[in-house]
Amino acid sequence: MQASIRIFAGLLVSTVAALALYQVFQPPEAPAQARQFTSSQECAQCHAEPFREWQDSWHSRSWTDPDVRALSNDFANTDCIDCHAPRPVFETGLANRVLPRAARRAEGVDCIACHQLPDGGMAGTFDRPDAPCRPQARRELAQVEFCAPCHDQHKTVTQWRASSYAAQGIGCIDCHMPYRNGDPNQGRDHTMHGGHDIELVRKAVALRAQRSSGAVVVEIENVGAGHHFPTDERSRAADVFWRPKGETAWRWLYRFRSPYRHEVELTDTLLPAHATHTLRIEDENARGALEVALFYKLTPYWKTPAAPDPEAEAKLVHRVELSP
């Protein structure tokens, strides 16, 4: 009986030892194969907040926006397709023009366009081999060159390079993808604040007016844009108007805008970063109290904004009142 017990105990010890050795020396499990993503809709489950922000952004509307459809002649101008429904930036490389995709164009500039790598993996801000998309940390996502393939088509990145922001290392995402609530631990806002955000536009420029030598001197200074104002789209313009206090009709004074190639009679009047443009109102109607205003418009341009005009008020950047 005791011999049987000893034999059983020996077998038990041997079995436990064998299992322990197997745990130590067994070959490592092969990592789970990365899931292949074919639509930004698939990102929503794990990245709910960035996905909601992207849905509210103009990146997501880059194909469906009525203004874009009109300006591109419903994309008959095929050059526009590259950036409004692009294949991944990593596919062609930083600073190189992106290629157009044939599928899912309604998703516009989507998650895949910015995050998918040539091997089908995903780029992120840190490595997560345990996540379904297994993101790989790629610092290129934060570089200005990553935005350049589309946003230097109208020389915005070139304008940035000529500014002091480039020398200070202040890049595109610092203004256009700020940290949520200013907290780096919360990640970056994917709403992509830009020219459609009137509050951001208001931070870009300052408007001043004073009387000097019988005239009204108006100054518009680019105080906050890391590039020309306005920029990126030739359909955008900022107009300076003035009117005697109490009148409803505005009087046009000046327009900041980059013309299209066919508008040979026009010159580029964009306001560079850090620059100030000075205007003079020499009109006897300006001797009394008056208002000077800067309006921003995506398209079409105003000859004169109506008053009262809710749309005009929504695009009012700054207004200055001047006493007699």
Outline the structure in words:
It is a single chain. The protein is an alpha+beta fold. The chain folds into 2 domains: 40-186, no CATH class; 198-322, Immunoglobulin-like. 27% of the residues lie in helices and 17% in strands. It is built from 12 helices and 9 strands. The protein has helices at 2-25, 48-55, 66-71, 81-84, 89-92, 111-115, 144-151, 156-161, 164-168, 172-176, 198-204, 310-314, and strands at 123-124, 136-137, 205-212, 215-222, 237-244, 251-256, 276-281, 290-297, 316-322. The strands form 3 sheets. The protein has a 4-stranded antiparallel beta sheet with strand order 6-5-8-9. Strands 3-4-7 form a 3-stranded antiparallel beta sheet. A hairpin with a 2-residue loop joins strand 3 and strand 4 (215-222). The longest helix is centred in the first third of the chain and has 24 residues, at 2-25. The termini are far apart. The mean pLDDT is 89.
